[in-house]
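#random but structural
TW: two for the price of one
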Amino acid sequence: MLRTTRRTAAVLLFALTTLSACTRQAATSPAPGTASPEPPVAAAPDPQADLVVVVGERVALDDIQDPDSLGGGYRARYRVLERFHGRQEGPMVDFEFYQHLGEPHLLGFSHALLFLRRDGDRLSEVAHYPVFAARGGGWAGCAPASEMEARRRKDRARAVPGVFAGEATYTEWVAPNPSAYPAEHFRISENRIRCLTGTPAQELYALNKHILETGVGPNSLTPEQVEAITVPVVQPAAPAQQPDEG
């Protein structure tokens, strides 16, 4: 009698285990004719993910003391005042740049529109523009100070008067050639350059979006490259001639 009871219990336990396994398989197996769900598609990498564009205020600028380098290396820290591109990583940006001749250009003004590229844990400077407080808020840069820069802008990012909230003046490390600074846009006094016209920083950012793709600064472009990225000025159509009534 005891052996019969044990045998019956074993049969019941086996039946319950088999039923539970079948239930789990039915719950996890797709129904006949039903396609398995596709795995999630990974988002395409952002080609601009390692780029940062900000308006910053200079906090520190120091030489890089590296006996193995050729010199001319600098490390800068800027307080972020406005961000145009790049992920937020705190109120400061630290980056490196090289200028082998003369004093660093970034020493001539306290605020700059900075184009930076990330390389591992470090940021390096690709291009920069001096900027000043703009009327009505925000920031603005000066008119182009070279023929190449003027060709790049053409009918984009025009420099107009009345943009700055106050005086927009910066210093060059050598006395600039006045012929390179059109009188309608600048006043030159020894090493001091006063900007009479300006362009909102947002327009300068839009003008230089190709920097985000190539990592090449505007001063590194060849004349042919400048011509290739310059939008032609559209000339107005000539008025139609009226037919003679005589």
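TW: number two ↓
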Amino acid sequence: MKTFFNVIGYTIKKPDEFIQFSKRTWGKVIGYVFLLSLILSLPLIYQSIEIAQTFKKDSNEIIKKIPEFDIKDGKLNPKNYEEGFVYQTDSIVFTFDPDNKRTLSDIQQDQMGRALPIALMDKQIVLVLPQSSSATDVVDTKTFTFPYASIPKHDSFNKESLTKIVNSRVNINVFMSVIIVTSLFMMFGSFIFSTFFLTLLANISNKLTLVPLKFSETFKILVYASTLPVVAATILSFIFPTLPASSLVSGVTILLFFMIQNTIRPRKVK
């Protein structure tokens, strides 16, 4: 944490100090990326915890609407069933669609505010993470599908077992753990990708301005230069949940790098 606060100080007062981070070991750099990814994940984790508080109540309300069902040959098999439906509560937008009339895109578009879209489809369960500043930039990774055939003891999965799952404290804790771990790794992957792209741009600038930095050194500096933008974007995300945090972080980080670059640019001899 000492490094974290030192970096913020360097950003404000001593950008020339960032050159030291170009020599950091990869182990320390990757560890720092995990720290920044965790910070970026906080708004999504916070929203998920809020959802969990009403998730159990809303889930029981939804289960009452679902007809009796079981899983046969990896497919949803409802009893006394007429047609599918979409039912919305404060925390969930639930789709019951054994006929697969809705697409993944339709379910993704159910995402409104902090509601969690969940669907029981013909052959799979679909889960869409809550929209947040950090998740909106990684659209493809927000949606997760779980085929019934991949669920342990899926042959015994039915309305009764679903009720037990929803009302189990252990399962709620597991659900929150999955959300937290998924959010962290989603942000980690996004952060690595965006920093690599920024490094490509920064490396071109290094060549043009004769700054003697290798590609790997530039990448490391950009990781540490993103500290203050990450903190600022995370704070703003709590105030403005739909703010594109990753884009904001990238834009400010590359501007900070140009300031750092100017401190190590070779000076002309007069």
